[in-house]
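note to self — DONT lose this again. spent like an hour looking for the file last time. sequence + predicted structure for the chain T wanted, 358 res
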Amino acid sequence: GQFQLINTNGSALDVNSTVEPNDWRNRGADYLAYGSVTQDGGQYTVQYRLIDTVNKNEMDAIAFAGSEKELRRVSHQIADRIYEKITGVRGVFSTRIAYVLQNGNNYELQIADADGQNPQVMLRSKQPIISPSWSPDGSKIAYVSFETEKPVVYVQTLATGKREPVANFKGNNSAPAWAPDGQQLAVVLSRDGISQIYTINADGSGLRRIMRSPLIDTEPTFSPDGSSLVFTSDRGGNPQIYEVPVNGGEARRITYNGSYNISPEVSPDGNNLVYITRRNGAYRVAIQDMATGSEQLLTNGSDDQSPSFAPNGMQVLYSSNQGGRSVLAVTSVDGRVRQTLSSLNGRVREPTWGPFTN
Protein backbone atom coordinates (compact mmCIF):
# COMPACT_ATOMS: atom_id res chain seq x y z
CA GLY A 1 0.00 0.00 0.00
CA GLN A 2 2.99 2.34 -0.12
CA PHE A 3 3.35 2.53 -3.88
CA GLN A 4 1.07 3.57 -6.72
CA LEU A 5 2.06 2.27 -10.13
CA ILE A 6 2.06 4.64 -13.10
CA ASN A 7 1.13 3.53 -16.62
CA THR A 8 4.25 3.16 -18.79
CA ASN A 9 2.48 2.61 -22.13
CA GLY A 10 4.44 3.70 -25.16
CA SER A 11 7.85 3.75 -23.49
CA ALA A 12 10.13 0.84 -24.29
CA LEU A 13 12.96 1.52 -21.86
CA ASP A 14 16.09 -0.54 -21.40
CA VAL A 15 19.00 -0.02 -19.05
CA ASN A 16 20.80 2.25 -21.55
CA SER A 17 17.81 4.47 -22.35
CA THR A 18 18.13 8.19 -21.86
CA VAL A 19 15.45 9.20 -19.38
CA GLU A 20 13.92 12.66 -19.13
CA PRO A 21 12.88 13.04 -15.47
CA ASN A 22 10.38 15.83 -16.18
CA ASP A 23 8.45 13.65 -18.65
CA TRP A 24 7.94 11.01 -15.96
CA ARG A 25 7.23 13.60 -13.31
CA ASN A 26 4.47 14.96 -15.55
CA ARG A 27 3.00 11.47 -15.80
CA GLY A 28 2.80 11.43 -12.00
CA ALA A 29 5.86 9.28 -11.28
CA ASP A 30 8.13 10.35 -8.42
CA TYR A 31 10.49 7.47 -9.18
CA LEU A 32 11.29 5.36 -12.21
CA ALA A 33 12.78 1.84 -12.17
CA TYR A 34 13.87 0.40 -15.51
CA GLY A 35 16.36 -2.10 -16.87
CA SER A 36 17.23 -4.99 -19.14
CA VAL A 37 17.40 -8.76 -19.03
CA THR A 38 19.91 -10.39 -21.40
CA GLN A 39 20.62 -14.07 -21.90
CA ASP A 40 23.93 -15.73 -22.73
CA GLY A 41 23.55 -19.49 -22.89
CA GLY A 42 22.05 -20.59 -19.58
CA GLN A 43 23.05 -17.40 -17.79
CA TYR A 44 20.96 -14.26 -17.46
CA THR A 45 22.16 -10.76 -16.66
CA VAL A 46 19.64 -8.41 -15.06
CA GLN A 47 20.60 -4.72 -15.01
CA TYR A 48 18.44 -2.06 -13.44
CA ARG A 49 18.45 1.64 -12.58
CA LEU A 50 16.34 3.72 -10.20
CA ILE A 51 15.78 7.42 -10.88
CA ASP A 52 14.33 10.09 -8.60
CA THR A 53 12.36 12.26 -11.01
CA VAL A 54 11.84 15.07 -8.47
CA ASN A 55 15.50 15.57 -7.55
CA LYS A 56 16.59 14.39 -11.00
CA ASN A 57 19.25 12.00 -9.75
CA GLU A 58 20.08 8.31 -10.06
CA MET A 59 19.43 6.52 -6.77
CA ASP A 60 20.63 3.04 -7.69
CA ALA A 61 22.21 1.08 -10.53
CA ILE A 62 23.30 -2.53 -10.30
CA ALA A 63 23.57 -5.74 -12.31
CA PHE A 64 22.81 -9.28 -11.14
CA ALA A 65 23.71 -12.55 -12.88
CA GLY A 66 22.02 -15.89 -12.45
CA SER A 67 20.46 -18.94 -14.06
CA GLU A 68 16.81 -19.09 -15.08
CA LYS A 69 16.02 -20.74 -11.72
CA GLU A 70 17.56 -17.75 -9.92
CA LEU A 71 15.53 -15.06 -11.70
CA ARG A 72 12.85 -15.01 -8.99
CA ARG A 73 15.54 -14.48 -6.32
CA VAL A 74 17.15 -11.71 -8.40
CA SER A 75 13.84 -9.92 -8.87
CA HIS A 76 13.22 -10.06 -5.12
CA GLN A 77 16.68 -8.56 -4.49
CA ILE A 78 15.94 -5.71 -6.89
CA ALA A 79 12.52 -5.15 -5.30
CA ASP A 80 14.24 -4.99 -1.88
CA ARG A 81 16.68 -2.37 -3.16
CA ILE A 82 13.91 -0.23 -4.68
CA TYR A 83 11.84 -0.42 -1.51
CA GLU A 84 14.73 0.51 0.77
CA LYS A 85 16.08 3.31 -1.45
CA ILE A 86 12.66 4.98 -1.56
CA THR A 87 11.27 4.30 1.93
CA GLY A 88 14.44 3.99 4.00
CA VAL A 89 13.04 0.71 5.40
CA ARG A 90 14.55 -2.65 4.54
CA GLY A 91 12.45 -4.65 2.06
CA VAL A 92 11.15 -8.15 2.84
CA PHE A 93 10.75 -9.52 -0.71
CA SER A 94 13.72 -11.91 -0.28
CA THR A 95 12.50 -13.33 3.03
CA ARG A 96 10.51 -16.54 3.45
CA ILE A 97 7.43 -17.73 5.28
CA ALA A 98 6.53 -21.07 6.84
CA TYR A 99 3.12 -22.63 7.48
CA VAL A 100 1.38 -25.97 7.90
CA LEU A 101 -0.88 -27.27 5.14
CA GLN A 102 -3.48 -29.87 6.07
CA ASN A 103 -5.17 -32.02 3.45
CA GLY A 104 -7.47 -34.56 5.08
CA ASN A 105 -5.16 -36.59 7.34
CA ASN A 106 -2.00 -35.41 5.59
CA TYR A 107 0.08 -32.60 7.08
CA GLU A 108 2.96 -30.73 5.45
CA LEU A 109 5.32 -28.15 6.90
CA GLN A 110 5.97 -25.86 3.93
CA ILE A 111 8.35 -22.96 3.33
CA ALA A 112 7.64 -20.43 0.59
CA ASP A 113 8.86 -17.08 -0.68
CA ALA A 114 7.37 -14.07 1.10
CA ASP A 115 4.80 -13.69 -1.71
CA GLY A 116 3.55 -17.25 -1.13
CA GLN A 117 5.15 -18.62 -4.31
CA ASN A 118 7.77 -21.36 -4.72
CA PRO A 119 6.56 -23.59 -1.84
CA GLN A 120 8.81 -26.41 -0.64
CA VAL A 121 7.91 -29.25 1.73
CA MET A 122 10.13 -29.59 4.80
CA LEU A 123 8.17 -32.37 6.52
CA ARG A 124 5.25 -34.66 5.67
CA SER A 125 3.29 -36.53 8.30
CA LYS A 126 0.04 -38.44 8.82
CA GLN A 127 -0.07 -36.84 12.30
CA PRO A 128 -0.59 -33.14 13.04
CA ILE A 129 2.27 -30.65 12.78
CA ILE A 130 1.74 -27.34 14.62
CA SER A 131 3.44 -24.16 15.85
CA PRO A 132 6.34 -23.59 13.41
CA SER A 133 8.85 -21.02 14.68
CA TRP A 134 11.88 -19.63 12.79
CA SER A 135 15.29 -19.39 14.41
CA PRO A 136 16.60 -15.79 14.37
CA ASP A 137 19.14 -16.55 11.63
CA GLY A 138 16.59 -18.36 9.45
CA SER A 139 18.59 -21.60 9.35
CA LYS A 140 16.27 -23.71 11.51
CA ILE A 141 12.60 -24.17 12.31
CA ALA A 142 11.18 -25.45 15.58
CA TYR A 143 7.74 -27.09 15.50
CA VAL A 144 5.52 -29.57 17.27
CA SER A 145 4.91 -32.99 15.73
CA PHE A 146 2.46 -35.64 16.94
CA GLU A 147 4.19 -38.46 15.01
CA THR A 148 4.89 -40.44 18.21
CA GLU A 149 1.21 -40.13 19.23
CA LYS A 150 1.95 -37.18 21.53
CA PRO A 151 3.18 -33.61 20.98
CA VAL A 152 7.00 -33.32 20.89
CA VAL A 153 9.03 -30.19 20.03
CA TYR A 154 11.56 -30.70 17.23
CA VAL A 155 14.20 -28.42 15.72
CA GLN A 156 14.96 -28.99 12.04
CA THR A 157 17.95 -27.57 10.12
CA LEU A 158 16.63 -26.43 6.74
CA ALA A 159 19.83 -26.90 4.71
CA THR A 160 20.28 -30.56 5.70
CA GLY A 161 16.80 -31.63 6.80
CA LYS A 162 18.33 -32.99 10.03
CA ARG A 163 15.93 -32.83 12.95
CA GLU A 164 16.25 -33.35 16.69
CA PRO A 165 13.66 -33.58 19.47
CA VAL A 166 14.45 -30.81 21.98
CA ALA A 167 11.47 -31.14 24.31
CA ASN A 168 10.09 -34.64 24.80
CA PHE A 169 8.98 -34.71 28.42
CA LYS A 170 6.02 -36.58 29.84
CA GLY A 171 2.73 -34.92 28.94
CA ASN A 172 2.43 -32.29 26.24
CA ASN A 173 5.38 -30.40 24.74
CA SER A 174 4.19 -27.45 22.69
CA ALA A 175 4.36 -23.82 21.49
CA PRO A 176 8.11 -23.35 20.82
CA ALA A 177 9.43 -19.80 20.34
CA TRP A 178 13.06 -18.81 19.75
CA ALA A 179 14.94 -16.31 21.88
CA PRO A 180 16.47 -13.45 19.83
CA ASP A 181 19.99 -14.82 20.42
CA GLY A 182 19.06 -18.24 18.99
CA GLN A 183 20.48 -20.02 22.05
CA GLN A 184 17.19 -20.78 23.81
CA LEU A 185 13.56 -21.60 23.16
CA ALA A 186 10.49 -20.91 25.22
CA VAL A 187 8.24 -23.99 25.35
CA VAL A 188 4.99 -24.97 27.04
CA LEU A 189 5.07 -28.22 29.01
CA SER A 190 2.45 -30.08 31.04
CA ARG A 191 5.09 -32.28 32.75
CA ASP A 192 4.11 -30.89 36.18
CA GLY A 193 0.36 -31.08 35.60
CA ILE A 194 -1.05 -27.97 33.96
CA SER A 195 0.52 -26.30 30.88
CA GLN A 196 3.24 -23.89 32.00
CA ILE A 197 6.00 -21.89 30.27
CA TYR A 198 9.66 -22.96 30.44
CA THR A 199 12.86 -21.97 28.70
CA ILE A 200 15.22 -24.62 27.34
CA ASN A 201 18.54 -24.47 25.51
CA ALA A 202 18.40 -25.17 21.78
CA ASP A 203 20.16 -28.52 22.38
CA GLY A 204 17.49 -29.62 24.88
CA SER A 205 19.51 -28.92 28.04
CA GLY A 206 18.98 -26.35 30.79
CA LEU A 207 15.22 -26.59 31.32
CA ARG A 208 13.91 -23.77 33.53
CA ARG A 209 10.36 -22.95 34.61
CA ILE A 210 9.48 -19.26 34.27
CA MET A 211 6.66 -18.97 36.84
CA ARG A 212 3.97 -20.91 38.64
CA SER A 213 0.40 -20.26 37.61
CA PRO A 214 -2.80 -21.94 38.80
CA LEU A 215 -4.21 -21.93 35.25
CA ILE A 216 -2.97 -22.54 31.71
CA ASP A 217 -0.18 -20.32 30.33
CA THR A 218 0.66 -20.83 26.64
CA GLU A 219 1.78 -19.24 23.32
CA PRO A 220 4.95 -17.58 24.65
CA THR A 221 6.88 -15.22 22.40
CA PHE A 222 10.01 -13.26 23.23
CA SER A 223 10.25 -9.49 23.21
CA PRO A 224 12.80 -8.30 20.60
CA ASP A 225 15.41 -7.57 23.27
CA GLY A 226 14.91 -11.00 24.85
CA SER A 227 14.18 -9.57 28.30
CA SER A 228 10.54 -10.64 28.58
CA LEU A 229 7.99 -13.16 27.37
CA VAL A 230 4.55 -12.21 26.11
CA PHE A 231 2.05 -15.05 26.44
CA THR A 232 -1.62 -16.08 26.57
CA SER A 233 -3.25 -17.11 29.83
CA ASP A 234 -6.75 -17.72 31.15
CA ARG A 235 -5.64 -16.91 34.72
CA GLY A 236 -8.10 -14.00 34.74
CA GLY A 237 -11.06 -16.19 33.74
CA ASN A 238 -10.80 -15.82 29.97
CA PRO A 239 -7.86 -15.76 27.52
CA GLN A 240 -5.84 -12.54 27.68
CA ILE A 241 -2.26 -11.56 26.92
CA TYR A 242 0.34 -11.00 29.62
CA GLU A 243 4.03 -10.13 29.87
CA VAL A 244 6.58 -11.55 32.32
CA PRO A 245 10.36 -11.01 32.71
CA VAL A 246 12.36 -13.96 31.32
CA ASN A 247 14.12 -14.19 34.68
CA GLY A 248 10.74 -14.71 36.37
CA GLY A 249 8.62 -12.44 38.48
CA GLU A 250 5.12 -11.03 38.34
CA ALA A 251 3.18 -11.27 35.10
CA ARG A 252 1.46 -8.11 33.91
CA ARG A 253 -1.74 -8.15 31.85
CA ILE A 254 -1.44 -6.12 28.63
CA THR A 255 -4.74 -6.64 26.75
CA TYR A 256 -7.98 -5.21 28.11
CA ASN A 257 -10.09 -4.73 24.96
CA GLY A 258 -12.60 -7.56 24.50
CA SER A 259 -12.97 -10.79 26.45
CA TYR A 260 -10.86 -13.08 24.23
CA ASN A 261 -7.32 -12.25 23.03
CA ILE A 262 -4.78 -14.92 21.96
CA SER A 263 -1.76 -15.59 19.68
CA PRO A 264 0.43 -12.60 20.55
CA GLU A 265 3.52 -11.44 18.68
CA VAL A 266 5.60 -8.33 19.38
CA SER A 267 6.76 -6.15 16.48
CA PRO A 268 10.50 -6.12 15.63
CA ASP A 269 10.88 -2.63 17.13
CA GLY A 270 9.03 -3.65 20.30
CA ASN A 271 6.42 -0.91 19.91
CA ASN A 272 3.37 -2.94 18.88
CA LEU A 273 1.61 -6.19 19.64
CA VAL A 274 -0.50 -8.18 17.16
CA TYR A 275 -2.94 -10.83 18.32
CA ILE A 276 -6.27 -12.49 17.53
CA THR A 277 -9.30 -10.98 19.19
CA ARG A 278 -12.87 -12.28 19.15
CA ARG A 279 -15.46 -9.61 18.45
CA ASN A 280 -19.14 -10.38 17.86
CA GLY A 281 -18.28 -14.02 17.21
CA ALA A 282 -15.62 -13.22 14.58
CA TYR A 283 -11.88 -13.79 14.98
CA ARG A 284 -9.88 -10.82 13.74
CA VAL A 285 -6.30 -9.57 13.75
CA ALA A 286 -5.76 -6.62 16.11
CA ILE A 287 -2.74 -4.42 16.76
CA GLN A 288 -2.08 -2.65 20.06
CA ASP A 289 0.38 0.10 20.89
CA MET A 290 2.54 -1.31 23.71
CA ALA A 291 3.03 2.11 25.30
CA THR A 292 -0.53 3.50 25.19
CA GLY A 293 -2.68 0.36 24.95
CA SER A 294 -4.64 1.83 22.02
CA GLU A 295 -5.99 -0.87 19.70
CA GLN A 296 -6.88 -1.09 16.03
CA LEU A 297 -8.57 -3.98 14.22
CA LEU A 298 -6.56 -4.79 11.07
CA THR A 299 -8.85 -7.36 9.45
CA ASN A 300 -12.58 -7.88 9.10
CA GLY A 301 -12.82 -11.59 8.36
CA SER A 302 -14.88 -14.09 10.32
CA ASP A 303 -11.98 -16.47 11.00
CA ASP A 304 -8.53 -14.86 10.80
CA GLN A 305 -5.76 -16.63 12.74
CA SER A 306 -2.05 -16.69 13.64
CA PRO A 307 -0.74 -13.18 12.92
CA SER A 308 3.01 -12.81 12.30
CA PHE A 309 4.99 -9.61 11.69
CA ALA A 310 7.21 -9.15 8.66
CA PRO A 311 10.82 -8.71 9.81
CA ASN A 312 10.66 -4.99 8.92
CA GLY A 313 7.45 -4.57 10.96
CA MET A 314 5.49 -3.08 8.05
CA GLN A 315 3.10 -5.97 7.33
CA VAL A 316 1.36 -8.80 9.17
CA LEU A 317 0.91 -12.29 7.72
CA TYR A 318 -2.08 -14.37 8.82
CA SER A 319 -4.31 -17.24 7.75
CA SER A 320 -7.89 -16.54 6.78
CA ASN A 321 -11.01 -18.34 5.68
CA GLN A 322 -12.39 -16.47 2.69
CA GLY A 323 -15.51 -17.76 0.98
CA GLY A 324 -14.92 -21.25 2.34
CA ARG A 325 -11.30 -21.32 1.15
CA SER A 326 -8.24 -21.32 3.38
CA VAL A 327 -5.78 -18.62 2.29
CA LEU A 328 -2.54 -16.92 3.26
CA ALA A 329 -3.14 -13.20 3.61
CA VAL A 330 -1.19 -10.05 4.47
CA THR A 331 -2.29 -6.70 5.87
CA SER A 332 -0.32 -3.49 6.21
CA VAL A 333 0.19 -2.46 9.84
CA ASP A 334 -2.15 0.49 9.37
CA GLY A 335 -4.87 -1.89 8.11
CA ARG A 336 -5.41 0.08 4.90
CA VAL A 337 -4.22 -2.56 2.45
CA ARG A 338 -4.97 -6.29 2.57
CA GLN A 339 -3.78 -8.84 0.08
CA THR A 340 -4.35 -12.55 -0.48
CA LEU A 341 -0.99 -14.23 -1.16
CA SER A 342 -2.17 -17.66 -2.20
CA SER A 343 -5.14 -19.93 -1.94
CA LEU A 344 -3.81 -23.36 -1.12
CA ASN A 345 -5.35 -26.73 -1.83
CA GLY A 346 -6.09 -27.64 1.77
CA ARG A 347 -6.25 -25.89 5.10
CA VAL A 348 -3.42 -23.50 5.85
CA ARG A 349 -2.51 -23.06 9.52
CA GLU A 350 -0.12 -21.05 11.63
CA PRO A 351 1.84 -19.05 9.06
CA THR A 352 4.98 -17.41 10.41
CA TRP A 353 7.21 -14.88 8.66
CA GLY A 354 10.92 -15.70 8.62
CA PRO A 355 13.72 -13.30 9.54
CA PHE A 356 16.18 -11.33 7.46
CA THR A 357 18.96 -13.78 6.70
CA ASN A 358 21.93 -11.61 5.70
